[in-house]
Amino acid sequence: MVFEFDVQTISKEVAEASFSWKSPSNIALVKYWGKSHPQIPKNASISFTLKNSHTITKIDFKKKAESDKVSFDFIFEGKKKDDFKPKIESFFERIDAFCPYLKQYHLTISSENSFPHSSGIASSASGMSAMALCIMSLEKALNPSLTEADFNKKASFLARLGSGSASRSIEGPLVIWGAHAEIEGSSDLFGIPFAGKIHDNFKNYCDTILLVDKGQKQVSSTVGHQLMHNHPFASQRFEQANENLLKLTTILENGDQKAFINLVESEALTLHAMMLTSNPYFILMKPNTLEIINALWAFRERTQSNICFTLDAGANVHVLYPKSEEKMVLQFIEDELSRFCEKNHYICDEVSSGAEQLL
Ligand code: PMV
User: Fold this and answer.
1) What is the DSSP letter of 217?
2) Of 11, 24, 208, 342, whose CB neighbour count within 10 A is largest?
3) Positions in the chain short of pLDDT 70
């Protein structure tokens, strides 16, 4: 049987080519936390695709004699960066069976992030998806019959092998990753755009990322995922996430903002509750994370705003709100929340329709 992600045909010769993609980060509303090998999520998740927090990657491919490993150089923000090489090397090993043609090329990979490198924003989703898209552009040049749908599916499949959440950074505005019995077309292997109708209340959502702690996290996501094996609440959590995802699909369609707030904040706190109840246990929130949450709740109470927060695996707070409330919320952030951010830094972002090809 031919596996759908094997290379089907190579009908063209490509001696030299360059491709470049701008790929965004994403923020999960229902979280993925816990996986099995190779990057198979324990539950389905859904995220908003972002816009301004992105990685731009260019890969120059030059044909050479075939080797047994992919040969490449990695340039990050204009400088050769050999300490990123092991992660990229293991990505190439994982995708080798699906992109065997890569070993016939030397790759010069140049990458830059729109956000500061040490901002505490994980660049793995945008970085891995940008790289997967450049590789898929080469595959498309070798096999021009590849359809756009298959291109996106395989780009997401490859990105997932680099970093799970990267599978949700190809398309937008909402992407589901993980097989869910009641969501048609959903898969553990790649992300799919949310196919339901999105109520106007949830179109053009904004996400202002409050940079509470720009330092290196004490516990990496890799270790955090591992701690979900033998976690006392793991099976209930995976079940709950799948239920929440189904509830959220209804909320997205019917426009119920209060239900959205409740579900999204509960997901964020549950993710961190899993960390608190792991063994060894750990805490990624900082005192200022809690200061922000409390100030946000008080503001919501006072103004009846539809603002809410979510968290990823770190101390930073993502403040989510409808575009119609942008002016009022940005004023609130500037006046009351920026003081809890490192050097008062925050990033104004919004939902987008996904990655863009630049070259
Ligand atoms: O893709 P990873 O392995 O870095 O894991 C990301 C996990 C969370 O950001 C905490 C949740 C998610 O679904 O993105």
Assistant:
1) P
2) 24
3) 1-2, 117-120
Confidence at residue 1, expressed as pLDDT on a 0 to 100 scale:
45
- Closest ligand 1 atom to residue 311 Cα is 10
What letters, b where the CB count within 10 A reaches 16 and e where it falls short, cover 80-114? eeeeeeeebeebbeebeebbebbbbbebebbbbbb
Q: Which of 26, 27, 31 to mutate to test the pocket of ligand 1 (most atoms within 8 A of CB)?
A: 31
- Give the chain's domains with CATH numbers: 1-359 (3.30.230.10)
Contact by Cβ (8 Å): 200, 319: no
Q: What is the pLDDT of residue 118?
A: 63
The pLDDT tens digits for 138-181 are: 999 999 999 999 999 999 999 999 999 999 999 999 999 999 99
Whether the CB of 32 sits within 6 Å of ligand 1: yes
105 DSSP β-pair partners: 63
Q: What is the rounded CA–CA span in Å between residue 50 and residue 47?
A: 9
Cα–ligand 1 centroid distance for 136 (angstroms): 23
Q: What are 210-227's pLDDT values in tens digits?
A: 999 887 778 899 999 999
Residue 261 identity: I
Q: Given this model, what pLDDT does residue 182 score?
A: 97
Whether 221 is in the pocket of ligand 1, judged by its Cβ within 6 Å, is yes
Helix (DSSP H) and strand (DSSP E) numbers for the chain: 8, 14
What does the alpha-carbon distance between residue 157 and residue 190 come to, in Å, rounded to a whole number? 5
